[in-house]
Amino acid sequence: MIPLRILPILLLLIGITLTACKRGPDTDVLEHELHTRLDTEFAPGVFRIHSFTRKGSAPSVTHDDAVYLYYDAELEFQRDYNLTAWRGLNLGTLAVVLGATPAGIEGYHPNNRQGDLLLVRGRLNYRKTEDGWLNITRMPEHEPPPVTPDTMEGSGPTSVLQSVRELLERNPGSHGKSRDGIIIEEFSESLKEIDLRFARLDGMLPFGTGWPAGTYSLFGAAFTPYATEHGLQVFDYSSEGSVENGLSLQQGYLDFALLQSDVVEVLYKGWVEASQLPQPDLRSMASLWPEALHIVTLEDRNIRSFSDLKGKRLAVGSPGSGTRFTARRVWAAAGYSLAYEERIRGMGLSASIAALESGEVDAVFVAGAIPDPALQSLAQRRDDVRFVPVDTATLNKLSSKHFAYYNTVIPERTYPGQTEPYPALGFAALLITSKRTRDEDVEKFLDLVVESADTLTHEFYRVGFISTKTSRLGISIPMHPGATHFYEKLREQNADAAAE
Q1: How far apart are CA 407 and CA 391, in angstroms?
Q2: 486/484 Cα distance (integer angstroms)
């Protein structure tokens, strides 16, 4: 029995809860808003709302006049559509339009047909105005207060190492702009090397991915636990990107890695102009998903064309990244020299975007998947993001000269606020190994990549783009014997299945 003195408090809490649940516009308004967004921000005529249920609301933690409205919905395909196709609007764009994450969408696969249903758990944002509730597609995030580094305690190597790990967990994303930041940044790099050596000591197979929160890193974070659970001890090594991965493979520090197809091509053959010696031990395994070079600026920087970048402050990626390599390639093809440009900044993706927003740089080069998650986040919270197209002559020059490149178009609405198609330089994300890697390890790795598709797609939706039909696209270096045997075996299995 509830004591009488507690009853008024419970009634008050219930009243507050019910008020919160009713906060915001009515359900029919939310459903209409979702329908409008699907037709205008994704693509008209692809989906019909089969069912819509409002699940509740919550106040914004950063904006007093804003509220989050949560919903569940079933979307019915009105025509055949592939949300994991290499070209066209895909699941990444749809998730942003729905106010969901890719993991919050179920029912998609490469062969969705008319009448199929998607199950969606999403969120819409509204702000209270004098005229009522106004839908907002962009809700700027306030900068979190800087974290003050704690001191380390303990003596002895193991104790110090544990203190360093705890220090980095409490202070993520340092950019070395202060003494503490420099210390944390150097600790982070040293810890990566220590963990890599530990992995070798424990008999694991190091897998080079990329910057935290980037596409390569997200794939590694999803795949490596799956591989380990299924008998292949894989260690996820977060690197600076493609160039570092390729060199580390050649030197024997890694067994597997993700690289851009253009970086692979040049590392294998060498690049005289950049004093890059050939790396003949690299071997290919599979082409995973399409990528493109994005050049992003803000409206007030007055950059409308590629030629306007000359003399501007540019962030072109960290020294070991594929972004920096591709930026240099494009810059040279356009007749400029990136090496002698005084206003070039080398920094990782998160630091580059922060520098763009703070005014330290005028434009950012990003080589990434379509859509790139970091650029989606930027365009979602700002309405002044602009994409700078590479001129057609430069694109044609690169795609005709280099096997790894092709001209592509990023469709309108791929990113929030993108109203026009964006011509870009296309390439692919490749899975690469070394000729020293054992055949059985390569076969097992590929086997797990294919097997994991259904399981991991909802952890990282890019896995859904991986297909044996596209596994040879953009590859210009020899295939590892283990990979060759894997595809031969797969072809035989498919032939037997077709015969049956």
Answers
A1: 11
A2: 5
| Highest mean pLDDT of the ranges 205-214, 266-275, 382-391, 470-479 | 382-391
Residues of the chain with CATH 3.40.190.10: 203-289+432-499, 291-428
Q: What is the DSSP letter of 271?
A: B
Kindly tell me if the per-residue pLDDT of 483 is higher than 70: yes
Q: Rounded CA gap, 45 and 75, in Å?
A: 12
Alpha-carbon separation of residue 287 from 72, 225, 476 (angstroms): 35, 21, 11
Give the Cβ contact number of residue 261 at 10 Å: 29
Fold of 203-289+432-499: D-Maltodextrin-Binding Protein; domain 2 (3.40.190)
Which residues lie below 8 Å from residue 121, measured CB to CB, with a gap of 6+?
55, 70, 71, 72, 100, 104, 105
Which DSSP string do the residues of 323-373 spell out, in sequence order? HHHHHHHHHHHTT--GGG-TTEE---HHHHHHHHHHTS-SEEEEEEESS-H
Residue 310 identity (one-letter amino acid): K
Of 428, 440, 485, 441, the C-alpha closest to 254 is 441
- Give Cβ neighbours of residue 187 (< 8 Å, ≥ 6 apart): 164, 167, 168
Instruction: Tell me the two tokens of residue 64.
Output: 């007093």
At residue 211, the pLDDT reads: 82
Give pLDDT, residue 3: 55
Using one digit for the tens of pLDDT, what is the confidence trace for 346-396?
Answer: 888 888 999 999 999 999 999 999 999 899 999 999 999 999 999 999 999
Indicate the pLDDT class of residue 27, thresholds 50, 70 and 90: very high
What the block records as the tokens of 336 is 């400029």
Contacts of 459 (CB under 8 A, 6+ apart): 103, 222
Q: What kind and span of H or E run contains 425?
A: strand 422-434
The CATH architecture assigned to 291-428 reads 3-Layer(aba) Sandwich (3.40)
Q: Is the per-residue pLDDT at 342 higher than 70?
A: no
* pLDDT tens for each residue of 452-482: 887 888 888 888 888 888 888 889 899 999 9
pLDDT band at 16 (very low <50, low <70, confident <90, very high): very low
> What are the backbone dihedrals phi and psi of residue 310, each rounded to the nearest 5 degrees, phi first?
-60, 125
DSSP 81: B
Whether pLDDT at 275 is above 70? no
Residue type, 90: N
- Report whether 80 contacts 112 (CB < 8 A): yes
- Which residues 6+ apart lie within 8 Å of 157 measured at CB? none
Return the SS3 of 224.
Answer: helix
Looking at the chain, the whole-number percentage of residues with pLDDT higher than 70 is 84
Pairing of strands 105-106, 117-129: antiparallel
How far does the chain reach from its first CA to its final CA, in angstroms? 68
What six digits make up the tokens of 293?
Answer: 């070079």
Cα 75 to Cα 71: distance, rounded to the nearest angstrom:
12
